[in-house]
Give the backbone structure.
Amino acid sequence: MRNGIFIVAVLAALIGLAAWNYVSLPVQTAWTLEQRQLLDSLALSALPELPEDPSNAVADSEPAAQFGHSLYFDTRLSGNGSVSCASCHKPELMFTDGLQLAVGVDVGPRHTPSLVGIAYSPWFYWDGRKDSQWAQALAPLEASHEHDTDRLQIARLIVTDEKYQYLYESIFGPLPELPQNPESATPLGNEQQQAAWAGLSSAQQQDVNRVFSNLGKAIAAYQRKLIPGRTRFDDYVDGLLDSNATASEHLNPAEVAGLALFIGDAQCITCHNGPLLTNNEFHNTGVLAISGQLPPMGRYDGIRFARKDPFNCVGDFSDANRSECIELRFARDTNDLVGAQKTPTLRNIAETAPYMHGGQIATLYEVIEHYNEAPISMLSHNEAKPLELRPVQLQQVEDFLRTLSAPLAAEDKWLTPPIER
Amino acid sequence: MFNNFCLLGKLLPAIVFFAATTSSAGDNPDFELQTDSGLSLHLHSQLQPLVINQIHSWHLELNNSSGLVEDATITVEGGMPEHDHGLPTQPQVTAEISPGVYLIEGIRFHMPGAWQMLFTIQVDGRTTEATLEFQL
């Protein structure tokens, strides 16, 4: 008899636990006014015009975008002749690579972020070490694990390739005369490259830097075309019109429940806000260090790199007046940015696994679990607090995130290598 | 630094708080604050309505009982106590655009929720502070 009661009690506890984990509560039937305002703030229809980049005079030039398109897919912009920007930022994977850590000429230290909608961001790289899209585009070209080439070699390619020479000069004016020797030089490379750079006159260095920075500006003009497309979620929000009813043909009840969590108890919207579902800012969320690496300093170092970068908004190669470099001039650099990494967009997030700055987390569900637990950060403090959501709710958040995928709004011609003319 | 700012707010009862605790500051981003030393601050955002994720400027008009106060030294800090972090930017007073009216550049809010801004004002060697609380 006593055994019987015990078995019933255990069974009841197990059923209760299973229900707690996996049974969803009824979905709310109507959005509140406050929720509705949040929904409207996330829809693609709320996306403003692409902000100007005063540091890049050709940011919105069509010829520059076409030139940048060619450069983006050109593997000659690499030391081994096999790596282009598209090797890691693959159009077919929403401009990511599906790998944990990027692989160019060698394996890099970070996960490849998407380029979709990134032209709206004031900062680039996971740690925000670059303050413009064109300055960002330059760094991988010279990184030994990425393109592994250098600015003088690239300038030589432009001067010797008839098509590139024509495109360059039609956009930026006459190319400078490059020194006969050396073949290869940069202030950032190996000892030989650095010595070669030091051997150039300052006028020659300035000429090479000018060509190099202009190529970055053309690549950025191309990348500004990579705007996200309209998703089921956007159709859902715009389809609400004057109604506050949550039911709709565009999202199923689990997805609606996930959306309610996204803007509510799951607190995703605190950082993943606005129509691109990112605040383009930096947060420490207690993600484990990348295997074999020390925990990175994140934005704390990133802003210091950005300030020292000769290609930043206030540098010689920027087209902006100093007064226009507002983000750089007023950027914060305090200790609370230790370990902070940039918030990525959640548009097309289902297609850009794995996740986080080191690709440490393989699946969307595991990412949501990570935020549910909010573990202690290895460095500084985790800004997020434990959510105490149930597994069924985590699944609902994932279901909602999967509604954020759609083909890009960019014209198809930008998503494949340019047709040679 | 923001931790210190929060602590300061708790430890200095002399600070006069004027909490503009509207449910949403977005549509009417003007604020009035007063300090215990008789200074009043009128804050006007150049971004209307006040929304997240856009860097912008505010004007700060500083008055005492006899009128506009010129040549004040003003510093600005801000953050979200709930999330234990500061503003994403470091705003600065970059100009006194007319007597007693100061330009604060570099303000950006990057999250919806409860924000605090601390204004430290030095006039004729005397320092006073005011804290603004509002919801975005």
Q: What stands out?
A: The interface with chain A takes residues 1-2, 52-53, 55, 83-92, 105-106, 110-113 of chain B (CB under 8 Å). The domain at 2-10+21-112+119-135 of chain B is CATH 2.60.40 (Immunoglobulin-like).
